[in-house]
Amino acid sequence: MRSTASILHLDLDAFFAAVEQRDKPSLRGKPVIVGGTGGRGVVSTASYEARRYGVGSAMSGREARARCPHAAFLSGRFHAYRATSKEVMRVLRDLSPLVEPLSLDEAFVDLAAADLPDLEVATVTEVGEQLRARVREVTGGITATVGIASSKFLAKVASELDKPDGMTVVPPGTELDLLRPMRVNVIPGVGPATSERLRRAGIHTIAELEAVSEDELVRLLGQAHGHGLWQLARAQDHRPVVAEREAKSISVEGTYDTDLTDRRLMEGLLTRQAREVGARMRKNGTSGRTVTIKVRLYDFTTLSRSSTLPSPTDDGATIARVARTLLGDLDTTGGVRLLGVGVSGLADWVQEDLFGDTGEDEDDEVVVPEPPRRAWPPGADVEHDEMGRGWVWGSGSGVVTVRFETADTPPGPVRSFRADDPALHRWEPPAEE
C-alpha cells in the first residue's frame, strides 16, 4: 500500500450493453441484454435498465427473459467492443505510461508515473474527473466509473461504490475505515464457497475478518488463500501496476449455436484452430510445450485435457495431432457446444522435427463443413443496398427483420426481408491497416 492515492481503476459501465445502446438509438434508455440468445444462452452484460428487474451477468437467458421479457436480447458485436476499448486504452496511455488492462472494459493506471504536479487528493480527483469526461468524449457517450486509492485492491473496491458514472477517491489513511463495514465478498477471490466457509466461522464483514489471526485463516482456507485474505483484510496490497504482461498461453476457441455431434467435424475444427494458434505463435516469435483442448458439452460441463511435448513447437500440424488425440479420450456423444485449442509453456525457441515429418499430412488437409450457426443473429450489423446500414431486429421462418439506424441517426424504420434477399448483407468494419 502506498502513501498516496496514486492507483486508478477505471471500469466502463455495463460496457457491452452501453455500446449497443450507443449504436442503436431506438434502444437508448431501454433494457438491453447481451449474451447467448438461444435457449441455453447466458447473460454477458445487462444494461442498468435491465438490472432493475434483477438481471445480472452469468444468469441464464431463460431466467433473464422471465424477469425482463421486454428487453432487447442481442448476441453481441465484438468488433464494436474492441474498437471502443482501444480508444479508451489510448486515452489511459496518454495519461500514464503504466496502464494494466484487465479486460476490454477495465484497467489500472499508475498515476505516480503520470506527469502530474503532485499526488494530493485534490489533484488526483481532478485528474479522475477529466479522465471520465475524456472517455465519454472519445467513445461517443460511454460512461466510466473510477476508483482512486493507495493500492490496486482499494482502487478496485472504490470503483464499485458509485456506479454508474461516478468516482470515489480513498484518501490515504482512511482505507480501513472504508473496508471494515463491508462484506467479505468484496475481496477478490472470495466467492460463494469461501463466503460460506467464513460465514460458518462467524465471519461476515471485513472487520470480523481482520480480528481473525493469520494462523486461523490458514487452517480455515489453506496457506495461500488464508495468507492473502489476512493481508487484504488489513488493506495490505503492494502489487505494482504492470504495463505489459508476458503472454502465458495462446489459444483459439469457438462456440456453436447447434451442438456438434460429428467427431470428424470436431477434429476438423480443432485442426483449423491449431493452425491458427501455430500461426499466431510464429508471428509472435514464440513456441510452446503444453497443448490443451477445451470442450464444453451440451449440459455446460466444461472439460479440458492437456499433453506436454518434450520440446517446444510452433507447428500447427503438430499441435493439431495432439489436440485430436486428446479429443479421442473424451465422450462427446451427447453433443459439444464449444471447442478450443491452446498452447502454454511458451518459449522463444523451437525444436525442429519433433515428430520427424511435421509437414501437413492427409488428415490435416481434410475439408470439413462449417458448423451450423445462426445466419442473422439479433443485433448483428447489416447493410441493405437501398436502405443502407441497420441491425437485425429478429429472424426466423425464412424472414429477417431489420431496424435501419446507426449511432449517428435518429431511431429508424423497421423492415422485413427474405433471409436470402440478395440485397441484404452482413456488415463488417473496414480492416485495420
UniProtKB/TrEMBL annotation:
It is found in: Cytoplasm. Its EC number is 2.7.7.7. InterPro entries: DNA/RNA_pol_sf (IPR043502), DNA_pol_Y-fam_lit_finger_sf (IPR036775), DNA_pol_Y-fam_little_finger (IPR017961), DNA_polymerase-Y (IPR050116), DNApol_IV (IPR022880), IMS_HHH_1 (IPR053848), Rev_trsase/Diguanyl_cyclase (IPR043128), UmuC (IPR001126). It comes from the Bacteria. The keyword Nucleotidyltransferase applies. PANTHER family: DNA POLYMERASE KAPPA, DNA REPAIR POLYMERASE UMUC / TRANSFERASE FAMILY MEMBER. Belongs to the DNA polymerase type-Y family. Poorly processive, error-prone DNA polymerase involved in untargeted mutagenesis. Copies undamaged DNA at stalled replication forks, which arise in vivo from mismatched or misaligned primer ends. These misaligned primers can be extended by PolIV. Exhibits no 3'-5' exonuclease (proofreading) activity. May be involved in translesional synthesis, in conjunction with the beta clamp from PolIII. This is DNA polymerase IV. The gene is dinB.
